[in-house]
C-alpha cells in the first residue's frame, strides 16, 4: 500500500480532501495552494488536470480548466509540479484527477513512469467506471498507487459491493446526481445512501460534490469519514485570480482562501499537522 | 464479419464502451434493459413502424438520378430519399424510436443536443407528438448561426438552452446535455442524435436507423454495387450500411474534408483523428497532442463533429467499409449539379456522399449501380449556399 | 351533381371559359388536344404516377392528429400530408403532370408565374428533372420578400424574371407569364400553378391534383364526415374534393379572411368578390365598382390571389361545397397549436384549413372524422411566423 | 350598318386607325388628340379604356393605363367623352377598346344605352375571342355597332374562315404573337398570313401590333387595307405628358405628335379630311 495514504488517510475519520486544478491560475499558485491546504489540515490533495471537455464537472471547474489550459497546462506538466511541492514540504498524498482521454494519449507506460518519478500517490478518472477500469486497477496496484473509485446514490447494491471490494485509498461517495458544483443542501436520502456505503466499505468513505458550508461538514461528520471539497475552493481561487497571479499579493490572496477553508472545516477541529 | 457487434460490454472490437461518470451508469443500465425489452416487444416495434409510415411518410422512395448518371457516363446513381422524411432528414427515424422508448420507460422529459438544429428539430417534433417535455442544448455560437431552426424548435414547444461553455458548439452542447441528463435521470430521457455516446446509444441509434438500409434492399431490384453515405456522427451511414454488411456490396463512408485535410480545418475524424474517448465512447477523434479535443471544421453543420461512431471506427479497422473525405467546395459543386440535373437540392451533408458518387461513377460500367443515401434536404442550407455560391448562381 | 364539368367550352355552369386574346387561342387549342391525348395514354399516366411515387414520394400518408383531437374533444382530425411531397407542398403533383405533358408536346421551355415562390420552385424542380428550360415570372415586391425561394429557383437552374408592372405581385406575374407565353408559344409551355386560367387549365390542374383525394379515399377506413381544404387559386382543395363530390361527405373550402372581411384587407374572393374575368376565366374576383382588379391581402402568400378557380365558383353556387373564411390571426393560432400538439409545422396556407377544422370539431361526435388537406409545410413561413409570433414563442 | 363606318372605313384601302387611351393624360388631351388624328387622316379612333390588368398590352400601353387610372378614368366616363369630341367636330367612328371585365361590370344593357346616347360606333374586346362573343355580336348588330374581330398568325384556317364571315367594321390582323408594342421589323411569314386573311375577308383588313415606322406602313400598304397604330402613338403621348397636361403648352405638344403621325403615315399620301 501507498505509504503516504497509510500515514495520512487510512483509518481516519476526519478526512479533508481538497481539489484544485493544476495551473489555476499558475503553477506557482498551485504549489502555494497545496502547501496552504496541508497546513490547514488536508489529508490528501486532488490535483485536477484541466480538460477541454470535463463531462463530470460544473461551470466553476470548467472555468478553472480553461484558465489552466490557456497557460498550456497538460497531464505531464501537472505531474511534474508534484516534486516541486514535495521539495517545499508537501507530505500528504497527491491524487491525479484526470479525464480518461488525457491518460490514453499519454499512455499507460509513460503515465506510471511519471507516477514513480514524481511521487504521485493516487489516480482518479471520473469517466472510467468500474467496468472499464480493470486493467488500470492492476497497474495502479503494481505501482503502489491508489485508484480512487466513485459511488453514487444511483449505484446499484450489486455494483456498490463490487466497487467497494476493489476500492483503494478511500471511497468517493458522490452526494448527488449531476456534476460538481456547490449545493446549498443535500437530499435527505443521501444519508441513508452514505450509511449503506459505509457499511460495505473496508476503507474510509469521503463525500464529495457540493460540499461548501461548515454546516454540511458538521452533518456529514456523523455519517462518513471525510469530505472532498472541489468547486467551493476553486470558486475562492477564481475570486482571487488577480491576487494569486501577482507575486506581491500572493500571500494575501492565499490567506483569504485559508480563512475560508478554516471556517469550512472548523467542525473537524483539525490540528495543524505541519508548520 | 460474422461476429456480432457490439459485445456485452458495448464494444465494437476495441471501440465503444461506456466511459461515463459513475453518476450516469445507472441511467445507462436502465436504458440498456428497457431497450432490450422494447426491441423484443412486437407491439413496440409495430408502433414504431406505424409512426414511421403514417407520421414521417416512410417508406422513402429511391429515385433514379437518370440525368446525372447520363452526364457522368458510368454507373447508374440511385438516391435513397431520406430528405422526404417529415422535418427533412433521416434524423426523425431515430427520434421517433427513442421517443417511443422514453414513453415506454415512463419518462416525461427528453433532453437532446443539437448543432445545426436538425436533430434538435427532430427531438422537439417527437416531443410534441408524444407529449413529452423537451429541452434542447445548443451552443450559443450555433444559436446565432441557426436562427430559423431555433425558432422551429420553440414553435414546436421545446426549450432551447444556450450553451456557453467550451467552444459553444455541438460538442459542448453534448457535454451539457449529458450533464443535465445525469442530474435528472429519474424523469428525463437523453435522446442522442447519432450513433455516438456510451453504449447502448450507438447500437440503439443504428437499430432505429437501419430502416434506411432495410427498405433500400427491398426497393432495389438487384443489390447495388456500391453504397455511399456521409458520416458526421455516422447515423445515416450506419443505418444504410448495416443491412448490407453481409452482402457483396462496396460500402463507402464520406467524411467532411472541410477546407482540405492538409489545412487542418476539417472534420475527417477517421483519417486525421487518434484513438480517444469522446462523449463516453472510445473511438477516433480530433485532438491535440496532449488529448484536448479540437474543434472540427466543415461547411456542413451536421458533419462538424470531432468524433465518429465507434462502429464506424471498427468497420474502418476491419476494412469492411472504406472511408474517404470530400471538401467543402466539392460538396457545394455536387449540390449544384444535383439541383440542376434532377431538381433535388440536397443537404450539404448529403452532398458529400453525392460528390463521392460523382467521383466514382465514371469509372464504373453503365450497368453497375451506386446507391447514395440522400440523408436530408438542402432547404436548411440555402443561406450557407447563398453565401458561398451567391455570385455563381445569380446572373 | 351528375353533369360533367367542364363542358366542351370549358364551362363550369356560368364559370370558366377562355377569355384570352386571339393570339393565345392557338396555344390553348393545341394544349387541349394534347392533354386529351395524354390523359388517354396509359404510358403517359403510368409515367406520371411513377414520378409521383419515386420522385415526389407519394403516396403521402394520412396522420391521425390524436393529441389535437383529444384536446378539442370532438371529431377525430386526420391530416393528408401533402407537406411531405418533394419541395414541401402539393404543388409538385401538378408541376410533374404538366412538365411531362410539355415534354410529350415537344416543348423545350416552360414558363410559370409565382407569388411566394412555391409554385416557382415546383416548376424549376420539374424543369431540372425533365430537362426543360425554365423562366419564372415573379413580382419585384415578392422577389424582395421571398429571397430564399428565389435562390432555390436559381439553384435549380431557373431564370427568375422580375415583374415591375402593376402591383408587382402574383397577379402581375401571371399577366407577364401569359404575355411571354403568347409570344413564345411555339417552344414554350405555360405551367400554371393552380386551378385557374383559361380552359383547359382549371381542368388539367384538377386532374393532376386529384391524386390527393383519390389516395385519401383509399387510405381512410371509412369515408370522412367532413373534408376541409384551403383555397387560394384552389388547386389543393379541388384535388382533394373532386373524388369526394359524389359521396355523402361535407366539403369545406377555406379562403383567407386576412385582417377580417370587414377591413377590406382579405382574399375572400367568394364571399366578397363579384363575377368577372381574371386570367382568362369567368369567376369571382376582388375588384372595385368599375371592374379594376384589386390587390388582396393575406398573411399567406399562397392564398393572396384576387380570383378563384371557376370550378370552386360553380361548386359554391350549386351549394355542393361550403366556403368559409379564416383570418390571419386565426391561422397563426392554428399553426401554433398543430406545432405544439403534433410536431407538425404547417404552411400558413394549410393552417387556414386546420383552423376551420379546429372550429368545427368540438361540435361533432367523437366517432366522426374530419380530413384536413395539409397542403404544405411551414418551413417557408418561419420568417413570417417569427415576425408575427416572435414575442409569444420566445420566452 | 353603322353610318360612320360606311362613310370613313368601308371600301377604303388606306385606313389609318390610331389607338389612344382615354384620359391619358387628361380628358381634354384625349379630345384634342382625337381631333388632331382626324385632321391627319385617321379613319377611325380606337379609344382604349384603361385597365388594371391589360393582358394583351405591352409596357407602353400599360403605363398609359396607369396614368389614366390615376385620374379616375373608367369605361363609362370614357364613353361620355365621345359626345364632347363630336361637338368639337369629330366625324370618324369611335371604337371603344375595352377588356371584357370592364364590360361585364358595366353590364350589357347599360353599355349599349351609353353606346346609343354617345354615338359610339364600334367595340373591340381583346380578351373576348370568337367562341365567347356570340351574344355580344348579336347585341352589337342590334345597336349598329361594329364588333371588331382579331385574327393572328396562329389562327387556324377553320377559325379564320368563321371569324372573317362574322366580322364587322374591319378585320384586325395581328402582325405578330405577343403583346402590343413597337417592333422594328415583321417576320416575313406575316405577309403570307395577311394575304391569306385578305383573301377570306369581305371587309377591309387592317394590320396592327408593332406598326411604328413609315417603311412598315409602305410595305403593309401592298398587302392590306390599313394600319392600326397604338404603342407608337402612345409613346409619343408619354413623351409629351407634361406638355399635354399644361394648357399653355398643349398646342405645341399636340403638334409634336402631329408631325410624328404625318411622317409615319406619309406613304398613304392622305388628304386632310377635316381641318
Ligand atoms: C442531413 C444530414 N445528414 C447527415 C448528418 C450527419 O449525421 P449522421 O452522420 O449521424 O448521419 C446530419 C446531421 O445533422 C444531417 O442533418
Ligand atoms: C402550401 C400551399 N397551400 C395552398 C396554396 C394555395 O394554392 P391552391 O389554392 O391552388 O392550392 C399554396 C400556394 O402557393 C401553397 O403553397
From TrEMBL, chains A, D:
Keyword Amino-acid biosynthesis among UniProt keywords: yes
Keyword Amino-acid biosynthesis: yes
EC number: 4.2.1.20
Classification via InterPro entries: Aldolase_TIM, RibuloseP-bd_barrel, Trp_synthase_alpha_AS, Trp_synthase_suA
SUPFAM superfamilies, sorted: Ribulose-phoshate binding barrel
UniProt KW keywords: Amino-acid biosynthesis, Aromatic amino acid biosynthesis, Lyase, Tryptophan biosynthesis
Active-site residues (renumbered): 46, 57
One GO CC annotation: cytosol
Pathway this chain belongs to: Amino-acid biosynthesis; L-tryptophan biosynthesis; L-tryptophan from chorismate: step 5/5
Entry-linked PROSITE patterns: TRP_SYNTHASE_ALPHA (PS00167)
Record's signal peptide: none
Pfam entry (one): Trp_syntA
CDD domains, per database record: Tryptophan_synthase_alpha
Enzyme class: lyase
GO molecular function, one term: tryptophan synthase activity
Catalytic activity entry: (1S,2R)-1-C-(indol-3-yl)glycerol 3-phosphate + L-serine = D-glyceraldehyde 3-phosphate + L-tryptophan + H2O
Family: Belongs to the TrpA family.
Protein purpose: The alpha subunit is responsible for the aldol cleavage of indoleglycerol phosphate to indole and glyceraldehyde 3-phosphate.
Subunit organization: Tetramer of two alpha and two beta chains.
Designated name of the protein: Tryptophan synthase alpha chain
Native source species: Guptibacillus hwajinpoensis
Gene: trpA
UniProtKB/TrEMBL annotation, chains B, C:
Family stated for the protein in its record: Belongs to the TrpB family.
Keywords from the UniProt entry: Amino-acid biosynthesis, Aromatic amino acid biosynthesis, Lyase, Pyridoxal phosphate, Tryptophan biosynthesis
Enzyme Commission identifier(s): 4.2.1.20
InterPro entries assigned to the protein according to its UniProt record, in alphabetical order: Trp_synth_b_CS, Trp_synth_beta, Trp_synth_beta/beta-like, TrpB-like_PALP, TrpB-like_PALP_sf
The protein's assembly and partners: Tetramer of two alpha and two beta chains.
The protein's name: Tryptophan synthase beta chain
Pathway: Amino-acid biosynthesis; L-tryptophan biosynthesis; L-tryptophan from chorismate: step 5/5
Class of enzymatic activity (EC top level): lyase
Modified residues (N6-(pyridoxal phosphate)lysine): 91
UniProt-listed Pfam families: PALP
Stored Gene3D superfamilies: 3.40.50.1100
Molecular-function GO terms, alphabetical: tryptophan synthase activity
Cofactors named for this entry: pyridoxal 5'-phosphate
Organism: Guptibacillus hwajinpoensis
Catalytic activity: (1S,2R)-1-C-(indol-3-yl)glycerol 3-phosphate + L-serine = D-glyceraldehyde 3-phosphate + L-tryptophan + H2O
Cross-referenced CDD domains: Trp-synth_B (cd06446)
Gene of this entry: trpB
Described purpose of this protein according to its UniProt entry: The beta subunit is responsible for the synthesis of L-tryptophan from indole and L-serine.
Amino acid at each position: 500500500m501507498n505509504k503516504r495514504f497509510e500515514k495520512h488517510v487510512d483509518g481516519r475519520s476526519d478526512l479533508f480532501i481538497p481539489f484544485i486544478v493544476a495551473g489555476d491560475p499558475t503553477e506557482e499558485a498551485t504549489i502555494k495552494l497545496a502547501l496552504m491546504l496541508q497546513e490547514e489540515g488536508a489529508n490528501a490533495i486532488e490535483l485536477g488536470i484541466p480538460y477541454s471537455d470535463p463531462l463530470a464537472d460544473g461551470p466553476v471547474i470548467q472555468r478553472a480548466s480553461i484558465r489552466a489550459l490557456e497557460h498550456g497546462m497538460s497531464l505531464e506538466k501537472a505531474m511534474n509540479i508534484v516534486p516541486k511541492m514535495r521539495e517545499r514540504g508537501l507530505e500528504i498524498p497527491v491524487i491525479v484527477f484526470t479525464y480518461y482521454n488525457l491518460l490514453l494519449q499519454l499512455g499507460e507506460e509513460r503515465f506510471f513512469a511519471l507516477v514513480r518519478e514524481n511521487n504521485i500517490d493516487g489516480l482518479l478518472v471520473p469517466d472510467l467506471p468500474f467496468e472499464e477500469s480493470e486493467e488500470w486497477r492492476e497497474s495502479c496496484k503494481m505501482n503502489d498507487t491508489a485508484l480512487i473509485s466513485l459511488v453514487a446514490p444511483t449505484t446499484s447494491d450489486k455494483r456498490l459491493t463490487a466497487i467497494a471490494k476493489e476500492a483503494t485509498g478511500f471511497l468517493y461517495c458522490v452526494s448527488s446526481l449531476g456534476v460538481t458544483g456547490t449545493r446549498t443542501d443535500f437530499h435527505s436520502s443521501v444519508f441513508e445512501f452514505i450509511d449503506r456505503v459505509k457499511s460495505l466499505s473496508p476503507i474510509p468513505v469521503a463525500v464529495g460534490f457540493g460540499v461548501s458550508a461548515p454546516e454540511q461538514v458538521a452533518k456529514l461528520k456523523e455519517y462518513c469519514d471525510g469530505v472532498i471539497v472541489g468547486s467551493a475552493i476553486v470558486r475562492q481561487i477564481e475570486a482571487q485570480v488577480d491576487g494569486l497571479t501577482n507575486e506581491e499579493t500572493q500571500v494575501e490572496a492565499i490567506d483569504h482562501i485559508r480563512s475560508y477553508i478554516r471556517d469550512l472545516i472548523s467542525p473537524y477541529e483539525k490540528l495543524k499537522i505541519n508548520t | 464479419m460474422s461476429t456480432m457487434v457490439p459485445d456485452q460490454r458495448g464494444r465494437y472490437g476495441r471501440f465503444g464502451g461506456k466511459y461515463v461518470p459513475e453518476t450516469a451508469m445507472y441511467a445507462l443500465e436502465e436504458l440498456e434493459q428497457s431497450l432490450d425489452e422494447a426491441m423484443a416487444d412486437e407491439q413496440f416495434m409495430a408502433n414504431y413502424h406505424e409512426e414511421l409510415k403514417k407520421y414521417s411518410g416512410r417508406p422513402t422512395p429511391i429515385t433514379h438520378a437518370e440525368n446525372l448518371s447520363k452526364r457522368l457516363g458510368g454507373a447508374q446513381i440511385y438516391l435513397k430519399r431520406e430528405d422526404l422524411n417529415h422535418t427533412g432528414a433521416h434524423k426523425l427515424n431515430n427520434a421517433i424510436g427513442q421517443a417511443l422508448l422514453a414513453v415506454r420507460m415512463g419518462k416525461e422529459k427528453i433532453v437532446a443536443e443539437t448543432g445545426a438544429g436538425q436533430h434538435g428539430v427532430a427531438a422537439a417534433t417527437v416531443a410534441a407528438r408524444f407529449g413529452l417535455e423537451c429541452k434542447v442544448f445548443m451552443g450559443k455560437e450555433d444559436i446565432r448561426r441557426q436562427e430559423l431552426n431555433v425558432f422551429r424548435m420553440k414553435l414546436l414547444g421545446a426549450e432551447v438552452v444556450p450553451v456557453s461553455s467550451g467552444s459553444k458548439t455541438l460538442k459542448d452542447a453534448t457535454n451539457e446535455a449529458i450533464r443535465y441528463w445525469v442530474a435528472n435521470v429519474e424523469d428525463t430521457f437523453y435522446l442522442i442524435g447519432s450513433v455516438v455516446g456510451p453504449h447502448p446509444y450507438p447500437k440503439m441509434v443504428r437499430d432505429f436507423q437501419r430502416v434506411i438500409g432495410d427498405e433500400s434492399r427491398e426497393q432495389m431490384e438487384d443489390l447495388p454495387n456500391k453504397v455511399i453515405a456521409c458520416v458526421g456522427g455516422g447515423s445515416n451511414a450506419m443505418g444504410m450500411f448495416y443491412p448490407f454488411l453481409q452482402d457483396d456490396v462496396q460500402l463507402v463512408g464520406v467524411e467532411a474534408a472541410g477546407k482540405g485535410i492538409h489545412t487542418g480545418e476539417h472534420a475527417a475524424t477517421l483519417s486525421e483523428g487518434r484513438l480517444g474517448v469522446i462523449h463516453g465512447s472510445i473511438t477516433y477523434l480530433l485532438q491535440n497532442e496532449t488529448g484536448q479535443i479540437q474543434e472540427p471544421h466543415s461547411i456542413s453543420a451536421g458533419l462538424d463533429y470531432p468524433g465518429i461512431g465507434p462502429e464506424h471506427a471498427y468497420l474502418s479497422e476491419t476494412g469492411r467499409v472504406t472511408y474517404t473525405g470530400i471538401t467543402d467546395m466539392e460538396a457545394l459543386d455536387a449540390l449544384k449539379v444535383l439541383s440542376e440535373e434532377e431538381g433535388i437540392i440536397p443537404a450539404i451533408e448529403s452532398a458529400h456522399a453525392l460528390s463521392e458518387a460523382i467521383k466514382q461513377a465514371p469509372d464504373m460500367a453503365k450497368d453497375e449501380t451506386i446507391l447514395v443515401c440522400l440523408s436530408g434536404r438542402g432547404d436548411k442550407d440555402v443561406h450557407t449556399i447563398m453565401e458561398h455560391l451567391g455570385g455563381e448562381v445569380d446572373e
